[in-house]
Amino acid sequence: MTDLPTVIGIAAVTGLVTGLGALPVFVRARVSHRTYDAALGLAAGLMVAASVFGLILPGTEEGSLTAVLFGLLVGGFGLLVGNRLIPHLHARYRGWRAEGGATRADVAGMAGTGGAAEDGPRENGDSTATIDATLRRALLVGGAITLHNAPEGLAIGVAFASGLEEVALVLAIVIGLQNVPDGFAFAIPMAETGMSNLRVLAYTALSGTVPQVIAATIGFSLVSLSTGLFPAAAGFAAGAMLAVVFRELVPSSHGHGYADAATAAFLGGFVLLVVVDAVVTV
């Protein structure tokens, strides 16, 4: 069985790949809304396929269908509860949306992200307020990132801990592929705040790496204690990932006139996962 340091390393690599999605900000080319929506559709297709072929089906093969479905419902509803209770800001095409207790003022404050250094000297009270506002925004964005990326890291850790190296490898590859458009979706509105390119790249890479490494460690550690937990744990990760897709990715990629592009990309992502799964498991 793969050891924990290796799992952490693999989860870190898949998370760092998120940074590739930020590369378009370096050329500062205007990204079309169609491209943005298609990227979200691609990520959604990969995540749905990974949930089904990488988690649900292996879970039913290793244990009972009841355990998998129980875990799926707990994971899915758990994500919805967390989305409701944890204040966070979701990145949107050239904008942000507040949820879970975050306010419109928090959204408006994102327009000033990265700009404090260029504003010149401030009074001490203003400086403290600026630091507090920046920290709050960082925590709000971090809450959304954790809700989105933690299930993916959990899936990697659970699969490796269960001795399903081929399944875990497929999941890691697919999650890495999915992280590129995911990073793209995160970086575009972040870049619109005026933040420097290097900071956008660093934050985007960290947005995938930190929650995925932590979640992979937790998933690996828990299932290592008892391999019988794999079916429920796999279902839990799949449920959370599916909830992210239908709660965030699908709504964000539709309603702007480019639903066809997003749907075509979704189908492409789903097929891509099937091809990767077939190649890796041969």
TrEMBL record:
Cellular compartments annotated: Membrane
Key words of the record: Membrane, Transmembrane, Transmembrane helix
Membrane topology: Multi-pass membrane protein
Transmembrane segments: 6-27, 39-59, 65-86, 200-223, 229-246, 258-280
InterPro entries in alphabetical order: ZIP (IPR003689)
Superkingdom of origin: Archaea
Entry GO terms, CC: membrane
PANTHER family with a match to the protein in the record: OS05G0316100 PROTEIN (PTHR11040:SF70), ZINC/IRON TRANSPORTER (PTHR11040)
Name used for this protein in its record: ZIP family metal transporter
Organism taxonomic ancestry: Archaea, Methanobacteriati, Methanobacteriota, Stenosarchaea group, Halobacteria
